[in-house]
Structure formats: structure tokens, C-alpha cells
Amino acid sequence: MRFLHIGDIVGRPGRKLVCALARKLKEAYGLEFITANAENAAAGSGLNLSIYRELIESGVDCVTMGDHTFKRREIIPVLERESQIVRPANYPPEAPGKGMILLNIGMGARCAVINLLGRVFMQPVDCPFHAVDKILRLLPADVRVIVVDFHAEATSDKQIMGRYLDGRVTAVLGTHTHVATADEQILPRGTAFQCDVGMAGPMESIIGRQIDRVTETTLTARPTLYEVASNDVRIYGTIVDFNPISGRALAIQRLVAGEAGVKISSTSALVYEHTS
User: Fold this and answer.
1) Phi, psi for 47 (deg, rounded to 5)
2) pLDDT, tens digit, for every residue of 124-148?
3) How many Å apart are CA 104 and CA 175, to the nearest integer?
4) How many CA atoms lie within 13 A of 209 on its CB side?
5) Cα–chain-centroid distance for residue 185?
6) Counts of helices then strands in the chain (DSSP H, E)
7) How far apart are the first and last CA of the chain?
8) What span, in angstroms and rounded, lies between the C-alpha atoms of 62 and 55?
9) How distant, in Å, are the alpha carbons of 120, 128, 159 from that of 185?
10) Distance between CA atoms of residues 127 and 91, nearest Å
């Protein structure tokens, strides 16, 4: 079995491409489910109910969030009532929403999707390591497939989490930087890992925003509105093959898909296989 995790969806261009290609990607790659980080899906920051439903209806099975979870107040009832969205589990216990959800993925198996927020160069939050330990202790024994979206800035932070959870979860896949890293691997105890899976959005940009706006503010310190760019829209994500009985990852591969009508292709022909 296999799943795809899509990196941060940035604004209207990113979500329109995801909605157009989600089911095509499922068919082309034989995916059991798709998870996608959508904390930037509403005009580049935050998420609302209509966009959440648009993504779910298009074929995304679970939406993950990050440090922009509460940028929009309208997200609160979505987090409280909807069943296919997770926010960082290391927010305070009083925060609306869930840090983990269970998905039915076929063959009688269930998958736990966990969202965590990093602490290096990020806003103050509770410890992600203690938070994930608590979730893993409480998971039903039959849930062996576990996917962690670690929304963090520093690669060292993400690498620590990957090693910490190696053999305890199926995959630790990073989001937040919007730039895909080339370190996809199966760790020694069978956990798929990548520092960052990238973004779904316009590549002719500064991490999804208009180049001139970001450059002006950088050079002059004058505040500008960082509007979402629009050119060369792509989906970056990562496919993980896994054993639904053991929960171990079998292979990991980066993926990039262009705009509707453009050939869907892999960025890497190399697949790392766990053989032990």
C-alpha cells in the first residue's frame, strides 16, 4: 500500500492544482490515501471551511496544519466539528481541534495521522516529543500505520524527530519551509523520513509569494502585502510505500506534478527500499 503527502498548499493557485489532480494522482500511483498540509491554503495564510471542504471533496483524505492554524477565526468550528483535519498536537490542551485522527485505509487497516509543530526558530509551543509520546501510548494496538507531519523550520529539529520516532511510526515528513529536500530515506528501523516535502504552489516566487513584494521589503524595510504569486504552479509531495500489517515503510520517493494537462512525473527515479 502507498500514500502521498503533499507539502504546504499556498493560496488559490496551489489548492486549485491539488483539487484538479488529487484523484488523477491516486489513480496514476495507486494511492490508498492522500494527506496534505493546508495551513496556507486561504490566500496564503490560514484555512476556512469552504476551502477545507473543497480539498476533501477533491480527493484529499486528511488536512494537516501548522503555525498558521489560527490565522483565521473561522477555522475554529472546522477544527471542532470536521473529522478529516488535524492541528499541531503540541498546542495547549485547551486549543480547538485534534492533534491526531484515524483514517480507514483499506484491508481492514487504520492509519493515525499526527501533526506536530517544531520549536527551533518557531513560536513557543509545548514539547513535540512529549506530545507524540502521549499519542502513541494511547493509540489502539491495531493501529500500526502512523504518519507524522512535522511542521518545523530547522532541519536539525526534523532530523531529531525522525530518529526519535524511527521504528515507532511509518513516516515522519516535514513541512513549513516550502522547499523540498533531497534527503528522502528509510531510517534503520523502518520509518520513512524527509526533512521537507516542499509546497503546492507557484514556483516563480519566494516560497509562494510575489518576488517583487518580498524583495522590496527585504531591501528597504518598507512593509508590503506579500501576495501569492501565480506562475509555474506545481505540486511537490512524497510517496511512501508501507506494509499495512507491520506499519513499516518499504520505499519513499519524491514527486512533482505540473498544472492540469501537464505530464505527471517523479522528480527522482531512485526509490530507497527497506530490506531488513
Assistant:
1) -150, 150
2) 999 999 999 999 999 999 999 999 9
3) 24
4) 16
5) 17
6) 6, 16
7) 18
8) 9
9) 23, 22, 11
10) 9
Using the structure block, give the residue that is written with the C-alpha cell 505540486. Answer: 235
- How do residues 6-56 score in pLDDT, each as one tens digit? 999 999 999 999 999 999 999 999 999 999 999 999 999 999 999 999 999
Q: Is 68 a catalytic residue?
A: yes
Q: What does the block give as the cell for 52?
A: 477545507
Amino acid present at 200: A
Distance CA 11, CA 41 (A): 4
Cβ–Cβ < 8 Å for 171, 144: no
C-alpha angle with apex 149: 144 to 151, nearest 5 degrees? 155
> Which residues, including other chains, have CB under 8 Å from residue 19's CB and lie 6 or more apart?
54, 55, 58
Q: Using CA atoms, how far apart are residues 236 and 267, in angstroms rounded to an integer?
A: 9
* Closest listed residue to residue 242, CA positions, set 176, 169, 175: 169
What are the grid coordinates assigned to 118, written together? 517544531
Catalytic residue among 5, 68, 178, 274: 68
Full DSSP string of 114-180? EEEE--TTS-----HHHHHHHHHHHS-TT--EEEEEEE-S-HHHHHHHHHHHBTTBSEEEEESS-S-
Q: Is the pTM of this model over 0.90?
A: yes
* Residue 122 one-letter amino acid: M
Q: Which residue is it, cell 480539498?
A: 55
Stretch (H or E) spanning 217: helix 211-220
Place of cell 519551509: 177
pLDDT digits (tens, 9 = 90+) for 230-266: 999 999 999 999 999 999 999 999 999 987 544 444 4
- Number of other CB atoms surrounding residue 34 within 10 Å: 23
